[in-house]
Design brief:
By secondary structure, the protein is an alpha+beta fold. The protein has one domain. The protein has helices at about 5-30, 60-80, 180-195; strands spanning about 35-45, 45-50, 85-90, 100-105, 110-115, 125-130, 135-145, 150-160. The longest helix has 27 residues, at about 5-30. The mean pLDDT is about 80.
């Protein structure tokens, strides 16, 4: 018999594999990847998948990206995501990461910024990040544009590992509470025992 933790690990791995297939299939069919959020939920003791589409309009500038990030975090909390996947086209660089001072769209100086979009040696990629309450993973594919249809070429893959507390992007820490069955049962037991 599996433990609750083993069952949870199996479910998030199936979720991750399924989302990877969905993102690859979407890109191979459409030739692009609009920002998309995938949430793993449990409702009435059944596993479910929440998919948020149509987010592209919110990625036109930093202010709209902040609105999107806040909305995604709110939905994650409301639906009690156990795991989340976030897919988006982005720029990435192989260059050693350098930092500098840039002027933001609001006209403010920002120190120590890493900005792959403005690097000379950069790649267009599809970035797919995953997280649970305490774990993270990622798949990154380079977009190759030869011929009629763009294609994805595996670039980097990061297996599940402990969340890096230094990841502080807009779309980091989407899940801030542990909604797994074990955590919820522990909370209930502690609450009952303290009353």
């Amino acid at each position: 018999m599996k433990t609750i933790q083993e069952d949870f690990t199996e479910k998030i791995n199936v979720f991750k594999d399924t989302v990877v297939e969905m993102v690859q299939g979407t890109f191979n069919t459409a030739g692009e990847m609009d920002p998309t959020v995938f949430g793993l939920i449990v409702k009435d003791n059944k596993i479910g998948l929440v998919v948020l589409l149509g987010l592209g309009e919110l990625f036109t500038d930093d202010a709209h990206k902040e609105i999107a990030a806040a909305g995604i975090k709110k939905i994650s909390k409301e639906f009690k995501f156990l795991a989340v996947g976030f897919a988006v086209e982005a720029w990435a660089s192989n260059d050693p990461l350098t930092t500098g001072t840039v002027v933001t769209s609001e006209g403010e100086l920002e120190e120590n910024v890493i900005d792959p979009e403005n690097k000379i040696e950069k790649k267009e990629v599809v970035l797919l990040t995953f997280e649970t309450f305490d774990q993270e993973a990622a798949n990154i594919w380079e977009i190759t544009r030869a011929g009629d249809k763009p294609k994805l070429k595996r670039w980097q893959k990061k297996s599940w590992s402990k969340k890096n507390p230094n990841n502080k992007g807009k779309f980091a820490d989407i899940i801030v509470e542990d909604y797994s069955q074990f955590a919820q049962e522990l909370k209930t037991t502690l609450k009952d025992n303290l009353n």
